[in-house]
Specification:
The chain has 191 residues and is mainly β. The protein has one domain (8-186): Jelly Rolls, CATH 2.60.120. It has helices at 8-19, 64-69, 101-104, 150-153, and strands at residues 27-38, 45-47, 77-90, 105-114, 117-125, 133-135, 137-138, 159-166, 174-186. The chain starts with 7 loop residues before the first helix and ends in a 5-residue tail after the last strand.
């Protein structure tokens, strides 16, 4: 299971935004990073990675104290969008021919789920490049720029997950680092 992303990490940029007095600025970005290891003995097929590093379980807006510390209540959050999801692969082989996503992964889908909300694919990549890094395509939602994560973040719990189709690899394990950039839209005027 993925660890919990605390809004304490979001409160500092939010506090700086509120303190700046910029009424027109009503959004900020937050970057979360996590990683998983693709084992060297992986056979071809579907792989559901367990991220281990630091923050894909969710965003808990029900913990209002952290927003109150910044002078903002959870109800001031209009929307949370995914700006980008980037995947970086490293084998430790120090050989660019091995550090290629297409050597390990055929395709990937990132999803979000929460109690009372449908499981929704938020980003995907159907063909991996012959490079160590790629950006996933964000899945359009009812309104661009994609799926509004606020209903997931206000649920009892929230989880990002991934489903990858792997190739049978060449006897090397690989570390896959995933970076998600979120855009948090705040209604500072309370309207």
């Amino acid at each position: 299971m993925l660890p919990h992303l605390s809004l304490r990490r979001l409160a500092l940029p939010l506090a700086a935004l509120v303190a700046s007095g910029c009424g027109a600025l009503d959004e900020f970005s937050k970057t979360i990073v996590d990683e998983t290891v693709i084992p060297e003995s992986q056979m071809q097929g579907v792989f559901l990675p367990e991220f281990t590093g630091g923050g894909f379980t969710g965003i808990n807006l029900s913990s209002a104290q952290e927003f109150q510390n910044a002078g903002v209540s959870p109800s001031d959050v209009d929307a949370i969008w995914i700006e980008s999801i980037t995947m970086d692969l490293a084998t430790g082989a120090n050989n660019p021919a091995f550090d290629q996503l297409d050597n390990f992964i055929t395709s990937v889908e990132f999803f979000v789920e929460a109690p009372g909300q449908p499981r929704v694919v938020v980003a995907k990549k159907d063909m991996m490049p012959e490079t160590a890094s790629t950006q996933l395509e964000i899945t359009p939602g009812d309104m661009l720029p994609g799926v509004n994560l606020k209903p997931y973040a206000t649920a009892e719990s929230m989880r990002f997950g991934a489903s990858m189709t792997l190739r049978e690899n060449r006897g090397l394990s690989a570390t896959l680092t995933t970076t998600i950039v979120l855009k948090v839209d705040i209604n500072l005027l309370g309207v």
